[in-house]
Amino acid sequence: MSNEFIATIDDDITEEELLEQVDFERMPRHVCIIMDGNRRWAKEKGMPGFLGHKQGVESFRTIMIAACELGIKHLTIYAFSMENWKRTSKEISVLMKLFEDYCNNEKQLMKEIGVQFHVLGEISALAPNVSRAMKEAGEYTKDGDRMKLNICVNYGGRYEILRGALKLADDIKEGRVNPDEVTEDDFSNYLYTVGQPDPDLMIRTSGELRISNFLLWQNAYSEFWFTNKYWPDLDKKALLAAIVDFQKRDRRYGGGKTKL
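The chain above was modelled as a monomer; its predicted structure follows.
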C-alpha cells in the first residue's frame, strides 16, 4: 500500500543509528498503539489465523520491553474492542487464552523491569479465569515505577465517554459536583485513564488509516504514525522510527509553535 500518510522505514538504517537520533529529553510521555494485522500476517504466510495472534504476543513483549527501556512512562495497547465480540467463537477463545496466559506468564517479567499493569475496559464481561488473571497481574505489578502499561480489553472509546458522562451526571444529581464548574480536566477524571497524561503519539500498524473507536477523548491532540507493517512484524526499530518522526514535528495544539 502506498500512501503519503503511511511512514516508510529505511531498510538500510540500523536500530543503533536510529537510537542515536532519539532525543531522550523530548520523549513522548504516553504512546498508544492499535495492534492490527495479525490475521493478514498469518494468511500471507499460509498459516492459520491463531498463529498470527500468537506471534503478535511476541511483538507485544518486544515493544513493552523496548518502550520501558527508552523511558516511555505510559504505553497503551488496543488489544480487544467491544466490536471484536463479532468474531468467531474459536478466534475469541484463542485471544482470551492468550490474554490469560500472558498475564500469568509475564507478570514476573513486568515486575522485574518495573512495569505496572492495568486493564482498561469492561472486564466484568470476560470469563472469570481471564478477568482474575488480569486482576492478579495488576496487583502483582502495582509497585512498578518505570512504566504504566494499559491493555484495552472489551474497550470502546464511545462507550468510555458515555460511561464517564453518566458517572458525572450521577455526581451532579447527588450534589457532589457543581455543573457550572466542570472543566475538561474534571471530565478526564471519569475516564479509564484517570491520572494519566493523554497520548502524545498514536501508532497504528497494517496500513489502516483510522483510529477505530480508540481513546477518542484522549487522542484529541495526539500525533499519528501509520505503518504498513503488520503487528507481528513490529519491532524496536519501528518504534524508534516512530519516535524520531514524532520528535521532528511541531505540536501546536491549535496555537503557535510548541516544543515537545
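The chain has a mean pLDDT of 95.
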